[in-house]
C-alpha cells in the first residue's frame, strides 16, 4: 500500500508511462476513498417535502419520490423491506383526491406499488370527468335559479 498511497512525494514522473500509470492509479484510489469513505447522511426530511403537484401524474410523482430517496438517503425504493414506508409516503403525499381514495383501500400499506399506482391513475384520469360533471351541475343549478317561478 505504501507504494500506491505514499505518505511523502514519491517523485513519480507523469511524463513517463510508468509514472503516469502510478499517478492515474493514485487518482482512482483517492476518488474511491472520497466516494466510499464516508457514509451518506440520511436526510429523511427530504422525503417528506416531496408532494404531488396538482397536474402531476402519479407515476411521475412516485419517480420523483424515488429519486429524492436515492439522492438523500440510503433507502432503496425497490427493496421489499422499504415497501411499507414508500407506500405510506406515496399515499400521504399524493394529491388530495388520490390520497382520499388510497386511504380508503384496506391494506394499502402492504400492497405492491403497482397496485397503488393503478388506483391512483384511475382517480387521476377520472378528474376531468368529475370536473365536467360538476360544471354541468353548476350550470343546471344556475339555470334553475334563473327560471321564473
Automatic annotation (TrEMBL):
Domain named Core shell protein Gag P30: residues: 5-125
One of this protein's Pfam families, by short name?
Gag_p30
Protein name, UniProt field:
Core shell protein Gag P30 domain-containing protein
Q: Where is the signal peptide?
A: none
Q: Name one GO biological process term.
A: virion assembly
